Amino acid sequence: MSTPTTSLDKGDRNDKGRAREEAAALLADMPLTHGSLPRRAAPLTLLAFVLAGIAVWQTGLLGAAFAGILVAVGYTAVIYVWARRVEGPRGAFDRLVTAVVSSAFALALLPLISVISTVVSEGAARFDADFFNNSMLGVVDEGGGAHHALMGTLIITGIAALMSVPVGLMTAIYLIEYGRGRLARWITFFVDVMTGIPSIVAGLFVYALFELFYGPGIRMGFMGSVALSVLMIPVVVRSAEEMLKLVPNELREASYALAVPKWRTILKVVLPTALAGIATGVTLAIARVIGETAPLLITVGITRGDNFDPFNERMATLSVFSYNQYAYAPGHARDLFYERAWAAALTLILIVMTLNLLARLIAKLFAPKTRA
């Protein structure tokens, strides 16, 4: 016996059919695809605005920063309006987000480019052999160099690295492999605090510490190394700790399964696996402290001649040398002193750049080999 179709069922079917017809009519009037901007539309538009910004900057109407902001805003607005007319709302929004991200990146590069170009242009005048082979001993105005400051920087930073790397690495090993409970939490807390302390605080602390043993007015290179190590240790701990966390636990468990002691597992399995990241972190930590001025100004001071003994009297460093040449330039020879200050700053930038490239090379050479 069949059930008769009710009027309610017929009404539902009619409503569904009417909805399908309306949707089909709507889709027939709406294109399923939109056009697309030419492949090189965005880069060429950006290039046009960059050239216009450079022209405005060169004419002196706007500074470099305001010209860069004008380029970013103009490029973003034009590319969004153009894409909305051609590609529709969704494509235009995608172009808008891409333009905003690209413009933010370009604006972030502007200060870096400005600093590098200024230091290179100003420091190139004294970036010669005499600058690296002579000190300031006996020099009044013209001539002289930063040989004593360059050697002092390398000596002080090298001693700081020798003190900081073992302490920082062993602290990281303890926190990852052994640390449990309250002591580990307190160590982690103090490492976080030390990471954010101002550099001058480290210099004042070291000066006060050495003053207790040697009396007021003490200055020597080793004090600067201790101050830099206070700044380096938390950076080394943090970088080494993160690299040790990335070592898979399966490697440790496989070693333990072969009855290998824990200390030998750390030495032969964990550390070699994390060596690339640890070496990179150490190199970047050295690059971070090599240009410090405030702690070295307090603990090491400045000298005009060569002194390569870190345990006897004052030494010179590139950062303090650059500051001293700029701050105490006499009026009759101001340009000569400024040239030496800029040349020392350029040397520091080149050293930091070399250390960063070295960190990348170390990471590439010592990275764990994986099968393709």
From TrEMBL:
Keyword entries, A-Z: Cell membrane, Membrane, Phosphate transport, Transmembrane, Transmembrane helix, Transport
Membrane topology field: Multi-pass membrane protein
Xref: CDD domains: TM_PBP2
Subcellular location: Cell membrane
Domain ABC transmembrane type-1: 150-359
SUPFAM superfamilies: MetI-like (SSF161098)
Annotated TM spans: 41-58, 64-83, 95-120, 149-175, 187-210, 216-237, 269-290, 341-363
Family designation: Belongs to the binding-protein-dependent transport system permease family. CysTW subfamily.
Protein role: Part of the binding-protein-dependent transport system for phosphate; probably responsible for the translocation of the substrate across the membrane.
Name of the featured protein: Phosphate transport system permease protein PstA
Protein source organism: Streptomyces johnsoniae
Name of the coding gene: pstA
